[in-house]
Amino acid sequence: MRKINNGQTGMPTILAFLLIPISGLAMDVYIPSFPKMVEALHTTPAAIRLTMTVYLVSYGVSQLFVGSLVDSFGRYRIGMTALALFVLTNFVITALNSIDWLLVIRAIQGVLIALIMVAKRSFFIDVYEDEKQKHYTSMLSIVWSAAPILAPFLGGYLEHFLGWKSNFYFLGIYALVLLVLEGIFSGETLKERRPFRLPLILNTYRELLTARDFSYGILILGFSYSMVIVFNMAAPFIIENVFHYTAVATGYSALVSGLALLGGGLLGKWLIRKPFFRKLRNGLLVQLGIAMVMYLAAPYFHHIVFMMVFVALLHFQMGYIYNSYFTYCLTRFPQMAGISGGVTSGGSYMVTATASYGLVSVLNVYDVSGLSASYIIFSLLIGIMLLLVYPVIANRSPRSLTV
């Protein structure tokens, strides 16, 4: 099996960045098709939303455990096998006419994407060190945010011209191309395998989760991304059923959301050396203020442009906060990159899946007022977590609290 050394990182790095958005593509590309899928599969909006939640839960739970596999048995073969099976499952979905089987396949896809993502995130910890490592890991959430930008935008046109199944044909073909390129150019990056012994693995998880700045950070990441998922779940029905636009308009709205997310992530990278807690606190206060103005103004401005201006501002702030804490968690335990990366992403996705689906169900988010209320709730939850993590960060790095 081919091994990658420090002189062969160019093309494998490009392929890793091309694979990073695949988790978001698998989650977001079919969002504009939600209303049509309700009709085609003879089901309910709640059941179609559940396909996203099932994927998120499966993806999140799997990442909690697959990190130990890629740390013990290597990144390459596991990632390639998962990518090949992901290609197959997308083509299987195009032959389905049952919501029950769609839920099953989406759960399987969550596991496969978890294996791919944990393996590829570990790549950057394996082959880069020091400032280069921070540079590339801070780029991960920025590159990953390309999926929320492109996927629903592309999905809107795929739905409009080719129908909902074309979304999954696209995923299958995209993954197949990357599978071939990975086979040609990439290879194994794990330098030292960790023994696959249960007591050792459990001690590793205990070390991660008892570090409060790390475990509370997972909650902060989960609540932050829940804002995007609630928008994704609610937007097709608000835009197409309330404002009476087409799936293409849903795609453009998701494009605006994704660009704002990307912009916030870029700001987080630009401010990577600024005091950690101070920049998170200031960003959250701005976010909460915007959400409250949106909620108060919603009854008086019933228009898609009004909604998307506030969504863009809020997702910009969310991208900034998410990128800052994601980089912190990902580099917190470099000696166990697979497990810590899996727990960071997997744990936050579990929080996201539970919080977003629960809040959408309780608030019945089908209008702008409900959407803005969800933003306020998640901002308050993030604020509580930051207050709890403040003493830990202060003890680790007093400089992070001052300008």
UniProtKB/TrEMBL annotation:
Location(s), subcellular: Membrane
UniProt-listed Gene3D superfamilies: Multidrug resistance protein D (1.20.1720.10)
Mode of membrane association: Multi-pass membrane protein
Pfam families (alphabetical): MFS_1
InterPro entries xrefs: MFS (IPR011701), MFS_dom (IPR020846), MFS_trans_sf (IPR036259)
Transmembrane regions: 12-34, 46-66, 78-95, 101-119, 140-162, 168-187, 216-239, 245-268, 280-298, 304-325, 337-360, 372-393
Domain Major facilitator superfamily (MFS) profile: residue ranges: 12-397
UniProt keyword Transport present: yes
UniProtKB keywords: Membrane, Transmembrane, Transmembrane helix, Transport
SUPFAM superfamilies: MFS general substrate transporter
Location, primary (coarse class): membrane
Name of this chain's protein: MFS transporter
Origin species: Niabella pedocola
